[in-house]
Structures are given as structure tokens and as C-alpha cells.
Write a structure and sequence with these properties.
Blueprint lengths: L1 H11 L3 H9 L5 H7 L9 H12 L3 H8 L3 H8 L7 H11 L3 H10 L10 H11 L4 H10 L7
Helix pairs in contact: 5-7, 7-8, 9-10
């Protein structure tokens, strides 16, 4: 049953260029656009997104705070949706939770930040670290060794 639902949903997911073409049409309203694309538009509820990621990680907040080297209060402001962290801080959290590159890219998009781009040297190193499940400390060592700025 799950596979059938996934197939139906995939049928309705549109590419970014298809979405842009729809938005370029003068006769389409925003309500109509959102109604026509329920499976394509990402949920941007930050608080819900962070809680889903925490649940997916299977880690406690205590472990995530320690692994990401976040201040306790700042962590709760971020996962509560009250603060939008910097790009480097999002990467710290993704590494701390041992989540995927897709999770990282989606989180960066939801927060209105640029995704990691493999043509940029520093971003390539970060992508490598996420894919190889390095820790924040290990990534910072690697960045330093490669003469790139460490995560802030």
C-alpha cells in the first residue's frame, strides 16, 4: 500500500521549471497555484521541520546540543522556530544528528539560505563530511587542513 501511495504522489510532483512556467502565467491566482501543487510545495513550518529532524535522528536534545557545540538556549530558540540559524549552524546540527545531505539541503532552503554547491571548494568538503558522517570536530579539522574557514 505504501508503494502505491508513493507512486501516486510522485505522479503529481512537478519540476522547478514546471512550477516557474505556471507562476509566469498571468491568469493563474496564488490560491489556484497552491491548490494545483499540493505535493510540490515544501512545508516551511520551521518548528515542525526541526522536530521531524530530531525525531528522525533518534538522538536526545542533550546529545545534539553537545555534538553541535551549541549553547543550550540558542538550540531551543532554533528548534522552536524562533531563530533562523546561519548556514554553518544548520550544517553543525545536521552533522550532529547524522542526517543526510538531502535533509541538509531542504533545511537550508526552508531557512532561505543557499544550498551546498559542489562547485565551491568549501561546500564540497562539507558535502563530503555529511556523506561520510563526520563529526563537527572532524569537519573543522578537515576544513582547516584544506585551508578553508572552519564552521562558525
Amino acid at each position: 500500500m505504501g508503494k502505491e501511495i508513493k507512486t501516486v504522489v510522485e505522479k503529481y510532483i512537478k519540476s522547478t521549471s514546471e512550477l516557474m512556467k505556471e507562476l509566469e502565467k498571468k491568469e493563474i491566482s496564488l490560491e489556484e497555484y497552491f491548490k494545483n501543487n499540493p505535493y510540490t510545495i515544501e512545508n516551511s513550518d520551521l518548528k515542525e521541520h526541526w522536530h521531524n529532524l530530531i525525531e528522525k535522528s533518534g538522538l536526545s536534545s542533550f546529545d545534539i546540543i553537545n555534538r553541535s557545540e551549541f549553547a543550550y538556549a540558542y538550540y531551543y530558540e532554533v528548534v522552536g522556530g524562533k531563530k533562523i540559524p546561519s548556514r554553518d549552524k544548520i550544517i553543525r546540527l545536521i552533522l550532529a544528528m547524522h542526517l543526510s545531505l538531502d535533509d541538509c539541503q531542504k533545511t537550508l532552503r526552508i531557512c532561505g539560505l543557499s544550498e551546498l554547491y559542489p562547485r565551491f571548494r568549501r561546500d564540497s568538503i562539507i558535502i563530503y563530511a555529511i556523506n561520510h558522517e563526520l563529526t563537527v570536530f572532524e569537519l573543522n579539522e578537515l576544513l582547516s587542513f584544506q585551508k578553508e574557514n572552519e564552521l562558525k
